[in-house]
Amino acid sequence: MVKRHVSLKDLAVELGVSVSTVSRALKNHPDISHQLTDKIQKIAIERNYTPNPLAMGLLKAQTKMIGVIIPDIVTHFFASVISGIESVAKEKGYFIVISSSNESFEKEKESVDNLLKSRVEGIIACISQETNDISHFQRLINNEFPLVFFDRICEVLSVPSVTVNGFEAVKSIIHHFKDNGCKRIAYISGPSHLSISKNRKEGYLEGLNECGLEFNPDLLVECNLSAADASLATKQLLSLDKKPDAIFGINDTIAFAAMKVIKKHGLKIPEDIALVGFTDEFHSTVVEPTLTSVTHPTFLMGREAARLFFNIIEKESTYHEKVILPTELIIRDSSVKRNVL
Amino acid sequence: MVKRHVSLKDLAVELGVSVSTVSRALKNHPDISHQLTDKIQKIAIERNYTPNPLAMGLLKAQTKMIGVIIPDIVTHFFASVISGIESVAKEKGYFIVISSSNESFEKEKESVDNLLKSRVEGIIACISQETNDISHFQRLINNEFPLVFFDRICEVLSVPSVTVNGFEAVKSIIHHFKDNGCKRIAYISGPSHLSISKNRKEGYLEGLNECGLEFNPDLLVECNLSAADASLATKQLLSLDKKPDAIFGINDTIAFAAMKVIKKHGLKIPEDIALVGFTDEFHSTVVEPTLTSVTHPTFLMGREAARLFFNIIEKESTYHEKVILPTELIIRDSSVKRNVL
DNA sequence: TTGAAAGCGCTAACAG
DNA sequence: CTGTTAGCGCTTTCAA
């Protein structure tokens, strides 16, 4: 079917020299005469020679592949992070192999296995929402296999990671709500074992505290990171005797789902309920009202994760750097109560 | 750093047999005694042996990798197609290497080169909006290199492809507009050399024809497939002496951008201008008004593209199948003029 | 029933 | 300056 790629041997035969001579000429080894080098390089280009990465990989025991495990590729957030990872991988001559866990613990374990089988040189991962047992990652660490986490991390594991300062971000959201006269601030969180859930919850509690608002357990609801579950969670909040006057959703899926439900209940945003999410720029401005949100530096998060990865494999260091990226609260219509200002 | 993977040789040494014996035992070759086979298989599992794909690849001259070239990964449409491709690749034991062209012709050529260098066994591609010269793909075809196009295809190239019935879809949109009393129907198209632009334009013209509406060149505007350009195009339409009373955008980027601009101009959707796009389910329902749109079977499109790819490499056939997937016009609020009904 | 040897494409140490 | 050789991990004749 496909014409075989031309090999060093092909060139060597054609030129009547040995394979090693061709190999050396191609890397400008000083031992080879200029004339020969030129001649060889010229014909190599003519014949469209490119080194066989499989052979190189075998020899050097490196595949130039990075495994990337994400919960779901069909999401602006993860697609953008991947894009960031890819951009630095490309600079380094690496390519990435993506494996989706679909938020499933079992699939995540499978992904690790498959990636290992493909001999990726390391893994950059965001753990699934189901993942509670982290022995599959522990195994990697025990073998000093390069591993980097981003966004949702395992705090108990000493691994380089890139996250976002969710604590500060959520605190600033609470202050913003308070400034707009909100008193009953609800938080729709993800599964409680996830680092982002915990982290943001702390920001929520501290924010309430700083604003002199009392924590009401009814207003903190945990749900899976899916639109369906978020809708249920929102309905639950709206069915409270004392409805919240503000809702903060832990990510974009949840924020948008909450928005739909609030509207469907005939409530006005922000007049009846102010809404803030953790989302991306684009879609926040398309919805109505435009959504106040904390924007992630997603692309940068990907680049940083990749940088940490290369730190490990290049320096052969085991230094465990934790990068925490800043976020920005961008205030739009969904949270500004005109009458209060 | 990383502990070396265990090889056949390691097992052979440990057991005091030859490498070939181990190799055979692992594939249940009848020549090896049951006892030995059992013993070898047991220890292989214990030592966590997995065959080195590089070695296998070298030997069999196959990498089990499929190259995927897309214009932009940070897009629901492409992320979803990728997800479809990945799902069948996984079933077949292949993995995919993604390369984004970022809608750039130069990057697309680079992607082809890089993918070829990585020895992918074939390429599944959606051409960039800049791509007019297709010699880089022609080269692949000349070498009988497995190639499949999806969505935006090269009609002049005889290559398996998966597309959507844009002609029919757009025709039905025009009829829908007509049923809602629209008479000045505008179409914001992509670059004219793209297959999807041409195809949908034909549906537009035929639809107008069928509805007894005259084609007005002012109402057909071409623009690049970016939000910025789509905004300009929309503004251009809104600045016409006789504004359109309906706009159809060729994809989601364009439809959402148009929506923003229309609102900003203080015009009401659908009362002043009805709007329809080619979009995904989720975001269409989040915007306000909810967007009437033609939904792509994106995941399926990915699966079909992958299926065509495996058809080529498995059957060693060169049969050029063209798959055309159905779409569905889902009517929501953005196009239904109540007063007319 | 098992082992030795060659070869996939490449590099590098060792000889000339 | 250039060639020979061995070896990366594996499969597959060919021998024993």
Written overview of the protein:
Two copies of one chain form a homodimer. With 341 residues, chain A is of the alpha/beta class. The first copy, chain A, folds into three domains: 8-46, no CATH class; 65-164 and 298-325, Rossmann fold (3-Layer(aba) Sandwich), CATH 3.40.50; 166-296 and 329-335, Response regulator (Rossmann fold, 3-Layer(aba) Sandwich). In chain A, 45% of the residues lie in helices and 15% in strands. Chain A is built from 13 helices and twelve strands. In chain A, the strands form two sheets. The first copy, chain A, has a six-stranded parallel β-sheet, with helices on both faces. In chain A, strands 7-6-8-9-10-12 form a six-stranded mixed β-sheet, sandwiched between helices. In chain A, helix 2 packs across helix 3 and helix 5 (76-91) packs parallel to helix 13 (298-315). Chains A and B meet through helix 4, helix 5, strand 2, helix 6 and helix 11 of A and helix 4, helix 5, strand 2, helix 6 and helix 11 of B. Chain A binds a DNA duplex (16 and 16 nucleotides) through helix 2 and helix 4.
Task: Summarize the structure in short.
The first copy, chain A, has about 350 residues and is an alpha/beta fold. Chain A is built from 13 helices and twelve strands. Chain A has three domains: about 40 residues, no CATH class; about 130 residues, 3-Layer(aba) Sandwich (Rossmann fold); about 140 residues, Response regulator (Rossmann fold, 3-Layer(aba) Sandwich).
Salient structural properties:
homodimer, 341 residues, alpha/beta, Rossmann fold, 3 domains, 6-stranded parallel β-sheet, 6-stranded mixed β-sheet, 15% strand, elongated, DNA-binding
